[in-house]
Amino acid sequence: MSLNAVKGAYSTVLLIFSIVIVIGLIFNEQTKVSKDVHPVAALAIIVAALTWLNMIEGGQGALVGLPPVDPDLYVDTHPTTHKCTALAHKGDNLDRYLMGRQFMVLLVVFVTNLSGAPLADAEVFGLPKIIIDIFLGSGVAMILMTAMAGQLNSQVTASHCMLDYINNGFAVFTLYVAMGIEFSGLLHCCYLVQMLFAMASGKPLESNEPPRDAAQNLFYWGRILVSLAILIFAFAVTLTALFEGQTTMWDGVPNGVAVILFFIFMSIVGMLEGMQIAFFAVAKLPKDERGDHPMARKTCELLFKGHGRNLPGFMIGRQVCVTMCFFIIARVTTIDVEVGVDDNIFGVSDNMQRFFNTGLLGALITTIVASITWQLVASAFPIAFLSNPLVYVFLVICLFLEATGICSGAWVLASGYKSILGIQLDEVYIGTPEERAAGLKPDRKDGTEPHLGTNVISNAPGGKIPREYLEYQQALAAQPETFSARRERILSNIKALREQKEATNNDADIDVIETSIKMEIAAMDKLNKAEQEEANVESDEEVGLKEAQA
Fold it and tell me: Which of 219, 320, 487, 515 is the most exposed place for a label (fewest CB within 10 A)?
């Protein structure tokens, strides 16, 4: 058994165990929703939340990664995907979607925690205290279940299967919900931060939409001011609690250090969030369009090295790293004021203090400052973002975390998901970026583009076009590849793939290679049928010509 198989096996066992104990907690009524409402309702909510989280996470990868691809290439094969991209890629809608989507993640994860997170002193199945402390007390069970079953498997799948992933009505619904959240203006202050970044970098922030009129500007800046006021209030409450030691920060950590840790870990999360957007943005670009900066090229070389495993591998390592950072941020920012005993922050009412104690203010700060803002910047300047040396450092760290195998169960889930739904790689439908740049598009059988010109032959009606002109035009036109040449190319590809298969012991790589071999064999069958059909047509034409001559 290979190392990857071992990691996938133990990670899947951990995932199954985590899911089982969470379900056990729910039916023992030891979670908030199962206790206050009903265990069946709690289970239904957590399943629905994780299902929606899959679409939110995978949909982001697809919508951010598809802009470089000509929509005409998939309008016939993926009409619903085309509908999604037509809306998301219109004007500045992609930025709007990213904003609404991030808050959706916050809400869905919050609901998941309410439905599955254990109450104080929870026990299940009579497990030893050390197991309870590791999986329930520290939140490992919820982290593994949410990360692998709700986020990572969809990110792994969508990173290379963007077209198939959002070719459904659920993706369209999710897109409209995200756009609606952005329209509410709750997070509009992110746009102000985006403007400041653009000014600091000296690069104009370009818009794909016409200038706003007076009414639109009033509505736009009004939402920014309201959002900014909410953010400032959240910062004031959280920082006051930090400086007064009224949070759940570990004992012994000075209050000033806690504030520093808060901003450091928010910066780390922001970097990882921006990297995700930038990586998807360049995933479909040819190599020569991925920037001239040496660090950007070095980062892309590592990211797309081998058979493309490092991109989804980064997504796994990133999620592990982000989850750990969120855990630390939550400990730093969650307010811990005993209502009725301690003094309420700013002298607010007891009900308002209870709201502060939920941790939602810290979560709102993290969403705006550590997630959306960085994503918007990376979306606007993906190549410049990749030129930052820290991006390469964090990429290496994330790939190392993925190599530990703690969340390798996501690969298992992704493989099963693709097999059940019949999801295929994007290259099956639209080819590689280099093939598209060369004009080798699957929607044209001869692999060429029509040649438009202004050459006009001055010729009398009924006259013949000069032979020299016909020969000149034929020499300029791209010649279609012959059946023999195409067959030789396919056989060469199969031979090279089989050699790669014999040279590797990586199960994941072997699966990819075997899938590629099957695709080449299918292409060979299609080629043989096309050649036979053409031969039949030519035979029929010859018979018709002989009959006419007779």
Answer: 219
Q: What is the pLDDT of residues 400-456, one digit of tens each?
A: 888 888 888 888 888 888 888 888 888 778 776 656 665 555 433 333 333 333 333
Using DSSP, state whether 214 is helix, strand or coil: helix
Q: Rounded to an integer, what is the distance from CA 246 to the centroid of its chain?
A: 36
pLDDT in tens, 322-356: 877 876 787 788 787 888 888 889 888 888 988 88
The predicted pLDDT at position 488 comes to 72
**CA neighbor of 373 nearest in space, from 497, 208, 196, 491:** 196
Best-predicted range by mean pLDDT (13-22, 200-209, 330-339): 13-22
379, 175, 22, 332 alpha-carbon torsion, rounded to 10° = 40
The radius of gyration computed from the CA coordinates of the chain, to the nearest angstrom, equals 28
Which string of b and e fits 531-547 if b means at least 16 CB within 10 Å?
A: eeeeeeeeeeeeeeeee
pTM of the model: 0.67
Q: Between residues 482 and 177, which one has the greater pLDDT? A: 177
The larger pLDDT score, comparing residue 477 to residue 238, is at 238
Cβ(447)–Cβ(441) below 8 Å: yes
- The 10 Å CB-count burial string (b at 16+, else e) for 175-191 is beebbebbeebbbbbbb
Contact between 152 and 316 (Cβ < 8 Å): yes
Which among 325, 331, 329 has a CA at the least distance from the CA of 401?
Answer: 325
pLDDT score at 483: 67
| Chain Cα centroid distance, residue 75 | 21
Q: How far apart are the first and last CA of the chain?
A: 72
496 CA to centre of own chain? 31
247 three-state secondary structure: strand
The CA-based angle 38-112-179, given to 5 degrees, is: 120
Cα separation, 445 vs 391, whole angstroms: 41
Helical ranges in 117-249 per DSSP H:
129-132, 140-144, 153-158, 162-165, 169-184, 189-201, 214-243
CB-neighbour burial class of residue 235 (10 A; exposed 0-12, middle 13-18, buried 19+): middle
Point out which residues pair with 31 in neighbouring strands. 118
Q: What is the separation of C-alpha 493 from the centre of its chain, rounded to a whole number of angstroms?
A: 30
d(CA 351, CA 67): 47
The rounded distance, in Å, linking the Cα atoms of 25 and 19 is 10
- pLDDT of res. 55: 94
Helix (H), strand (E), coil (C) string for 323-375: HHHHHHHHHHHCECCCCCCCCCHHHCCHHHHHHHHCCHHHHHHHHHHHHHHHH
Report the 10 Å Cβ neighbour count for 384: 16
The count of other CB atoms within 10 Å of the CB of residue 55 is: 21
Query: CA quadruple 186, 188, 189, 193: dihedral positive or negative?
Result: positive
